[in-house]
Amino acid sequence: MPAALSCFKAYDIRGRLGTDLDAAIARRIGRGFARALDAKKVVLGRDIRASSAELASAVADALIDEGVEVLDLGLAGTEEMYFAVSHFGADGGIEVTASHNPMDYNGMKMVRAGSAPLGSATGLDAVQALAEADDFGPARDGGRLCDISAEARAAYVARLMSFIDTDALRPLRIVVNAGNGAAGPTFDAIADALAARNAPLRFLRIHHEPDGSFPNGIPNPLLRENQPATAEAVRAADADMGIAFDGDFDRCFFFDETGRFVDGEYIVGLLAAAFLSREPGARIVHDPRVIWNTRDIVESAGGVPIQSRTGHAFLKAALREHDAVYGGEMSAHHYFRDFVFCDSGMIPWLLVAELMGRTGQPLSALVAERRAAFPSSGEINFTVENAAAIRDRVEAEFAPDAVGRDDMDGLSLDMGSWRFNLRSSNTEPLLRLNVEARGDRDLLDRQVARLSALIQAGA
Length: 459
Prior knowledge:
Protein name: Phosphomannomutase
GO molecular function: intramolecular phosphotransferase activity; magnesium ion binding
Distance between the termini: 39 Å
Number of strands: 21
CATH class of one domain: Alpha Beta
Organism: Paracoccus aurantiacus
Helix content: 25-40%
Number of helices: 14
Keywords: Isomerase, Magnesium, Metal-binding, Phosphoprotein
InterPro entries: A-D-PHexomutase_a/b/a-I, A-D-PHexomutase_a/b/a-I/II/III, A-D-PHexomutase_a/b/a-II, A-D-PHexomutase_a/b/a-III, A-D-PHexomutase_C, A-D-PHexomutase_C_sf, A-D-PHexomutase_CS, Alpha-D-phosphohexomutase_SF
């Protein structure tokens, strides 16, 4: 029986270099991808990690050996790959990236034709089986490598520009933290397009140059220890807003003009409102962890909120099934119907800048009322070895008094004036807790303390 490849996960490929993933394994994955999808044309991109160029080269060689025309993006974000697959009518796409994982990791994100997710039930299992068997035979004829980086980026930027009305923008000074990841060059192309339209936006760039050694740390702005660099730059520059990206920039994080980090669920609410002002009655997809603010905004604006399980494959499927205009997760993933039903880290900040222009309000004011109406805890992670037993203990404590229950993704209990979601990580020995309340921060803090004590007592 062929040896199993541990780098295959439910919806992507990731693993430790030299142990789970190397150039030889990447070649097998590339050939398996081409065979499983019967692909003739495949888009290939990569992030800035030191190992990504070698792995991408191995994938390209493998695809060529399968007779595939490889449309090479070079250094690009995952969303640029998503867009290019549909734009160029490719049979699939691969982005070599480990995003915000540790330095000694890398991986791949993959899609099928139409930029649809490639998961275990939709083709990834077949890729894995072929890669593990490693029985491909001699190379096929007809394969070639085509550099489409310039053409693809120009088309991608044009699509992004279609999301905003530059005439609605007002003068803003924006701090941009690319985290030394892949975002810098792409951001510059977007900034050039805005300048060509005389958009009154000025940018202060920090940690901008792509550098696979990540001299300023792994680009993951969701970690609190990574947030001060952007926050301090916003305050020092007296900027109107700060934005920060992860390694492959499919997530965008916001800081208001005071340097305060804006939790993701409030950005979901802002974007939902923006789309509903353009498309009344539209459907908006959200994840189940923190829901009250989003649902209140969507329903008040006449929209239809639709809950999906957490995770990009589930959000994208829900977006397609319901033809929803937008979907958002509190973890800073934002999905757009008119961006091939995929997530983008660049579209959100453009829309928020336009919203600030239209309302004349600073970002802090745009979210202040929502923070007060629906305070939330942010995601709190607990390292545990017995997640199921702890969840059972929490359920026994709170479920008898709950007025509503939802088991779509972990345990969600509505306690009337407050609500929580407790779910296990799919990849780590962690329990993830989110708590929200209706207009009562003190109540929120008390319940967070109560839940935390219960979880830690059983850890």
